[in-house]
Amino acid sequence: MTMTVTNGEVNPVTANGGFTIDKPFKIFVGYDPREDIAYEVCHHSILKRSSIPVEITPIVQSDLRTNGLYWRERGQLESTEFSFTRFLTPRLANYDGWAMFVDCDFLYLADIKELRDLIDDKYAIMCVQHDYTPKEATKMDGAVQTVYPRKNWSSMVLYNCGHPKNKVLTPEVVNTQTGAFLHRFQWLEDEEIGSIPFVWNFLEGHNKVVEGDTTTFPKAIHYTRGGPWFEAWKNCEFAELWLKEKDECVKEEKK
Ligand SMILES: [Mn+2]
């Protein structure tokens, strides 16, 4: 790619008929060595359907430790290696522009441009705001239900990395703050969190497709309980879509 320089100013990169080429959309994918194949398939599913340039980077905990960005001890409740490292996304994007974080257990079925086009600069972050509030606030015996606010919200987040509020997410904070502070976005006010249609974080086993209603058709399936790469989940809903993508991915790698 070539940059055109006029009067000392760098203009947007142009080529082939002069249209502006977008800066690549930065995507950080949570990586866990136990789920390498999930990462590969997620990566493949984004690239294959994208009509815009994307830059996909795995978030690898061991690399972050080597680079001095991550040092916290692993807690008992961390189900993946990226439970906390995901919150380094604004730092990894140098607190500039928008970047997406997504778990590796996603399968994209739509063009990522459609998601990027939903971005609104008035928000600090945007995500699917799943509602997990149980229907009854108390159990039959009167005990209060354990509600886990904003469950699954942090699994796919568009970060406005240049937003002043996100400067809070320094490596120090990511390494020391509680899971509740980070996963519930407690550094933000409610109105600073934008909403994305649920089909971009369609929870397998929770969200349902309504026949004939295209607004319920998944654009990204989240195998949040475990996907077909685990023996126990090889027959989960949408397993065949993931397995088909995996076959393609493996074939292309062999070429
Ligand atoms: Mn997940």
Can you tell me about this structure?
The longest helix is centred in the last third of the chain and has 16 residues, at 239-254. Mean pLDDT is 90; it is low at 1-12 and 14-18. Helix content is 22%, strand content 17%. It is globular, with a radius of gyration of 19 Å. It has a single domain, classed as Spore Coat Polysaccharide Biosynthesis Protein SpsA, Chain A. With 255 residues, it is α/β, with parallel strands linked by helices. The chain binds manganese (II) ion. The site of manganese (II) ion (MN) has 5 residues, from loops. This is Nucleotide-diphospho-sugar transferases superfamily protein. InterPro entries: Nucleotide-diphossugar_trans (IPR029044).
Please render the helix and strand layout as text.
Blueprint lengths: L4 E2 L2 E2 L3 E2 L3 E2 L4 E6 L5 H14 L4 E6 L1 H6 L22 H4 L5 E5 L3 E3 L3 H5 L8 E3 L28 E5 L10 H6 L2 H5 L9 E3 L6 E2 L16 E3 L16 H16 L1
Parallel strand pairs: 5-6, 5-7, 9-11, 12-13
Antiparallel strand pairs: 1-2, 3-4, 7-10, 8-13, 9-10
Bound molecules: manganese (II) ion.
Manganese (II) ion binds next to loops.
Task: Write a short abstract of this structure.
This is Nucleotide-diphospho-sugar transferases superfamily protein. The chain has 255 residues and is an alpha/beta fold.
For the residues shown, what is the average pLDDT? 90
Structural class: alpha/beta
What distance lies between the first and last C-alpha atoms, to the nearest angstrom?
26 Å
> What fold name stands as the CATH topology?
Spore Coat Polysaccharide Biosynthesis Protein SpsA, Chain A
Q: How are the strands ordered across the major sheet?
A: 6-5-7-10-9-11
DSSP summary: helix tally: 7
Order of helices and strands: EEEEEHEHHEEHEEHHEEEH
CATH architecture: Alpha-Beta Complex
* pLDDT < 50 runs, ≥5 residues: 1-12, 14-18
Tally of structural domains: 1
